């Protein structure tokens, strides 16, 4: 049986008893036209290994293979889905590698052959944590070239947000520090089974060769986390745990200590991370 001859996803779900489980953050996308549209947002995959998290019954997995992915490595926590995914593997010999496990504990990314694309309809309960991990590897450029991911629309908006907006925060700074990010399109709840309570959106993130501005990534992450953890507070208060003379450090780089995190640009956060690093060295 070829990929094109595989049964409809609703039939696959019925055959294998794959009722979505809320505890696993599952919302299955059954329209193969939409899964194909998601796969195409990742660009030409014919020379790429693709990492997929949470394939479920395999709608997006099929699309990635049909779009010509060199190899798809899929990580699925739900053992019930494995027989359905094995059927896809049989229809695409040697192109689908399955891993049963928790994506937060199992990371096959280092074993993939570059170039690598990550494409996934991420389970809602682990999506943000996985994204932060992919955005903050020990070395840059990362193993992946691009991330094409589906999130709740609210999370997608936080990734592409600009200073001054309510959505602007830690995710925007971490994503835009070393990547280009854009929202590709939205999907209504009715596109999923079962329908979630929120609209979803597909985001495409491309790794830049180098950061936009000089900054120690670990210190930048620390600064941004503190700043937005108490976003209603002035910077002099939210960042006071970083250095004893935080207000003076802020003033020295031209940032008013009375400003709030949501007004601080990526460039300013990078300058602040550099200033914190220099102050610590001097101290």
Question: Care to describe what's here?
Answer:
There is one protein chain. Helix content is 36%, strand content 18%. The chain folds into two domains: 3-207, Rossmann fold (3-Layer(aba) Sandwich); 217-282, rRNA adenine dimethylase, C-terminal domain (Helicase, Ruva Protein, domain 3), CATH 1.10.8. Helix 8 packs across helix 11 (266-282). The chain has helices at residues 9-16, 32-41, 59-66, 82-91, 127-135, 153-160, 170-178, 217-229, 235-238, 246-252, 266-282; strands at 28-29, 49-53, 71-76, 96-100, 116-121, 144-152, 179-187, 192-193, 200-207. It is of the alpha/beta class and 283 residues long. The protein starts with 8 loop residues before the first helix and ends with a helix.
Brief summary of the model shown:
The chain is of the alpha/beta class and 283 residues long. It contains eleven helices and nine strands.
């Amino acid at each position: 049986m070829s990929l094109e001859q595989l049964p409809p996803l609703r039939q696959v779900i019925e055959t294998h008893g794959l009722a979505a489980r809320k505890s696993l953050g599952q919302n299955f996308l059954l329209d193969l036209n939409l899964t194909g549209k998601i796969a195409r947002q990742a660009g030409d995959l014919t020379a790429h290994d693709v990492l997929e998290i949470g394939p479920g019954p395999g709608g997006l997995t099929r699309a990635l293979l049909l779009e010509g992915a060199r190899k798809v490595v899929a990580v699925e926590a739900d053992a019930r889905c494995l027989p359905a995914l094995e059927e896809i593997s049989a229809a695409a010999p040697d192109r689908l590698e399955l891993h049963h496990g928790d994506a937060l504990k199992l990371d096959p990314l280092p074993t993939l052959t570059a170039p690598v694309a990550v494409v996934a309809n991420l389970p809602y309960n682990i999506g943000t944590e996985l994204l932060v991990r992919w955005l903050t590897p020990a070395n840059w450029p990362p193993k992946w070239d691009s991330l094409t991911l589906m999130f709740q629309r609210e999370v997608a908006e936080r990734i592409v947000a600009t200073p001054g907006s309510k959505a602007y925060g830690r995710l925007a700074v971490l994503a835009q520090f070393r990547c280009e990010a854009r929202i590709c399109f939205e999907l209504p709840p009715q596109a999923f089974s079962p329908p979630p309570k929120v609209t979803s959106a597909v985001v495409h993130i491309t790794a830049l060769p180098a950061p936009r501005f000089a900054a120690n990534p670990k210190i930048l992450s620390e600064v941004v986390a503190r700043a937005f953890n108490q976003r209603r507070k002035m910077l002099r208060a939210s960042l006071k745990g970083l250095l004893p003379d935080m207000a003076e450090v802020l003033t020295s780089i031209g940032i008013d200590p009375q400003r709030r995190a949501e007004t601080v640009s990526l460039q300013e956060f990078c300058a602040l991370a550099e200033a914190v690093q220099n102050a610590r060295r001097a101290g």
